[in-house]
């Protein structure tokens, strides 16, 4: 089943949702960098994953969820792990973090789609 068929017919364009998701990831990265100490980088990744999940839940679009998850991971890897400003994939832990953040985002997107479908299919009283 293609991802496009899971999208409700009345939603916003995917391209717009991807752009908004990028800005959500940038804002989450900036807020996380300010509020969470650098030594707790796993907590920083968790917050980025939650931000991607929350956005994907609201967007209810799997493509936007996946791209937002990858953007959140890239921003977290480049700016929230010392040395900051370098996007360097160092191996297994980075791949696990990528899978975790994208997985959280996709889970949020799937839940958002199911919520929209149940609200849409519910009979009006």
From TrEMBL:
The keyword Transmembrane helix applies. Keywords: Membrane, Transmembrane, Transmembrane helix. The chain crosses the membrane at residues 16-38, 45-75, 95-113. This is SPW repeat-containing protein. It comes from Nonomuraea maheshkhaliensis.
């Amino acid at each position: 089943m293609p991802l496009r068929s899971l999208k409700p017919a009345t939603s916003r364009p995917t391209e717009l949702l991807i752009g908004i998701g990028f800005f959500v990831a940038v804002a989450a990265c900036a807020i996380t960098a300010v509020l969470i100490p650098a030594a707790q980088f796993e907590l920083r990744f968790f917050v980025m994953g939650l931000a991607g999940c929350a956005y994907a839940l609201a967007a209810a679009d799997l493509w936007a969820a996946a791209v937002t998850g990858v953007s959140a991971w890239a921003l977290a890897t480049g700016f929230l792990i010392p040395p900051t400003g370098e996007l360097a994939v160092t191996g297994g832990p980075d791949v696990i973090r990528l899978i975790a953040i994208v997985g959280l985002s996709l889970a949020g997107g799937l839940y958002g789609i199911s919520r929209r479908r149940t609200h849409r299919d519910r009979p009006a009283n």
